[in-house]
Amino acid sequence: AIFYYAGHGYEHSGRNYMVPVDAPQPYVPENCISVQRILQKMQQQRTALNLILLDTCRKCPETPPQGFFCPKKVRTRPSPGRCEDAEAYELQDGEYSSGIFMKYLKKHVLQDKKVTHMLEDVLEDIGRDPLVTGRQVMEIKHTLKEARSLTDPI
Predict the structure, then answer these.
(1) Is 115 helix (H, G, I), strand (E, B) or coil?
(2) I want to staple 78 with a disulfide (CB 3.0 to 4.6 A). Which of 33, 64, 99, 148 is the partner?
(3) How many CB atoms sit inside 10 A of residue 17's CB?
(4) Model confidence pLDDT, tens digit, residues 43-98
(5) CA dihedral of 148, 150, 56, 82, whole degrees rounded to 10
(6) Bridge partners (DSSP) listed for residue 70
(7) How far is the C-alpha of 86 from the C-alpha of 106, rounded, in Å?
(8) β-pair partners for 76
(9) What is the torsional sign of CA 125, 127, 129, 135?
(10) What is the 3-state secondary structure (H, E, C) of 49-92?
């Protein structure tokens, strides 16, 4: 099972939250969606692999500017609240935008290798991207006990 979320998020007391577009500010856990709750629901299905991909910014700027754009047509998605100091950047291409994470995930997602190795390849590509070097950090957490790939037969 795969769950992918791109948008605002934050971390509070070791728990990750996704922020709905209509959540009132200041953001509080009661108005947001707990990632741990999503994982719990996925685990109840007894799947061989549960993968949650969060393409979220967890940086807490003092005052996030409206429509903030970074140099070279890269945009950050700032998220308020107590959270880790991490940003997620987007590439603007006309009217469309795609996160840097998604750019490299698409490159590696169907490789026939353990999912953790595939994600490490994404991490390495992000680390070499001159638009975000030293500014965007990817975190991988897992509890895999067996080698699982997204190309495994269902």
Answers:
(1) helix
(2) 64
(3) 27
(4) 999 888 899 998 887 554 344 333 322 222 233 343 333 334 445 555 555 555 56
(5) -20
(6) 74
(7) 21
(8) 89
(9) positive
(10) CCEEEEEEECCCCCCCCCCCCECCCEEECCCCCCCCCCCCEEEE
pLDDT bin (cut points 50, 70, 90) of residue 108 is: very high
pLDDT at position 40 over 90: yes
State how far the Cα of 107 lies from the Cα of 92, in Å rounded to an integer: 18
Distance CA 9, CA 60 (A): 10
Report how far residue 130's alpha carbon sits from residue 18's, in angstroms, rounded to the nearest whole number. Answer: 28
d(CA 75, CA 6): 13
Tokens of 85: 């100091």
Residues involved in catalysis? 8, 57
Domain positions in the chain are: 1-62, 86-153
Q: Tell me the whole-structure pTM to 2 decimals.
A: 0.71
Mean residue pLDDT across the chain: 74
The CB-side HSE value for 91 (13 A sphere, CA atoms) comes to 13
Q: Which two tokens stand for residue 6?
A: 């791109």
Length of the chain in residues, anyone? 154
